[in-house]
Amino acid sequence: MRLLNKVTFPHTSGHAPSMTAFNGKIYIAWTGAGGKLNIGQIIIENNNMRLGGVFTLSEVSGYSPSLAVFHGQLYMAWAGKTGGKIHIAPVEIDATDSSISLGTVIDIYNSSPVYIKNTDLGNTAGPVLFAMTQYNAPVLCVVWKNTADQINILRSADGSRFMGPGDLGSSLIVFVNANSTLGPVTSNHMAACCTGGNIAWSHSKTNKLYSGHIALGTANSLASIYNYNNTIYNYQEEFFNGSTSSCPAIACKGTSADAGLLISWKGEGSDDHLYMVSVYPKKSKPIPPTEATRLEETTRHSPAMCLYNESVFIAWIDVDDHQINMALVSA
Q1: 273-279 β-sheet, strand order
Q2: Which of these, 124, 162, 260, 328, could form a disulfide with 4 (CB 3.0-4.6 Å)?
Q3: Chain centroid, CA 125 distance in Å
């Protein structure tokens, strides 16, 4: 795998960016100077990228924001600058693309109509938004890491009421399948999620990468990470030496059910290179992950990836100037 058509934008960030495709463009969000949240429009022409409008929002954060599309609406999630509370809001885009702002902000700690039993929302990383299907209906999910390094998840059917399963009030701590010896999904870094409930994370005790699929539980059950055919692929143990020291990024490689996934991450410790691997969890016969590719590009943060018109694009913050870079992923 390699990166093509790289562009460098003049904007900088000290945190990982977030990307998603929406209404014929790629939207990218990042935390800029003074913690101000920013959102920009990436216009793609023949797989070449240029930055359209860039809008600085009034909200601030000490972490990375997250973007997702749900019910034809673009949403943003972020952790507040103080207290680590999770905020979620629709992104309102003017018909002429001349302005972008946030709609009504939901604070799932204080303002949600649902009582959250797990009130430990002391974020040490920004939350992640993604959409998936529960009981044949779309839901918007928010995932975050609490101070115990446990990965939690809530879901919403309308983009405003976020709740757990069954009793409508529990925050979910995501566990791996009972067949696994991993135990609770804990990580020193945030997990990565993408459309359909695909998830990747580095385990807090080993920093080794794992991936799986989220199944939202019923009654008072917890969400589960289902192994691919009862196998958890440990990429770093099986395919190269080393472990990650950042949150990974995950993206579908295409829109077909068996298109596979791309997972990218920063190398361990002082290894600032980006790595990338392909997995195919939904093939009729499981295909083990490819050997990881070490890319020439470097970063000290998590990359971001998204699918746009059957192509995967990646963004990252470079090491030297902290500028936002973007490229097309070529297999």
Answers
A1: 249-252, 261-266, 273-279, 293-298
A2: 328
A3: 11
Residue type, 307: L
Question: Which amino acid appears at position 292 of this protein?
Answer: A
Could you tell me which of 110, 24, 35 has the C-alpha nearest to residue 74? 24
Taking Cα atoms as reference points, which of 3, 99, 6 lies closest to residue 58? 99
pLDDT in tens, 201-245: 887 777 777 777 777 764 433 444 544 444 554 443 333 334 666
Q: Is 235 helix (H, G, I), strand (E, B) or coil?
A: helix
Enumerate residues 6+ apart whose C-beta is below 8 A from 242. 236, 267, 268, 271
HSE-up (13 A, CA, CB side) for residue 67 = 27
Q: Is the distance from CB of 139 to CB of 145 less than 8 angstroms?
A: no
Which segment, 151-155, 194-198, 207-211, 306-310, is predicted with the most confidence on average?
306-310
CB 69 within 8 A of CB 131: yes
Q: How far does CA 328 lie from the centroid of its chain?
A: 18
Q: How far apart are the first and last CA of the chain?
A: 4
Give the pair of three-digit tokens for residue 84. 């680590």
pTM of the model: 0.89
Q: Please check whether residue 105 is in contact with residue 89, taking contact to mean a CB–CB distance below 8 angstroms.
A: yes
Task: Name the region of 108 (left: φ>0; alpha: ψ -120 to 50; beta: rest).
Answer: alpha
> Of 119, 10, 28, 97, which Cα lies nearest the Cα of 303?
28
Using alpha carbons, select from 210, 188, 207, 189 the residue that is nearest to residue 199: 210
d(CA 313, CA 20): 10
Nearest partner of 7 among 61, 35, 38, 45, judged by Cα: 45
Write out the H or E segment, with its range, that includes residue 239: helix 235-239
pLDDT of 225 reads: 52
Residue 117 confidence (pLDDT): 44
Q: Which amino acid is at 213?
A: H
3-state DSSP: the chain helix, strand, coil percent, rounded to 5?
A: 0, 50, 45
| Amino acid residing at 280 | Y
Query: What does the alpha-carbon distance between residue 278 and residue 263 come to, in Å, rounded to a whole number?
Result: 6
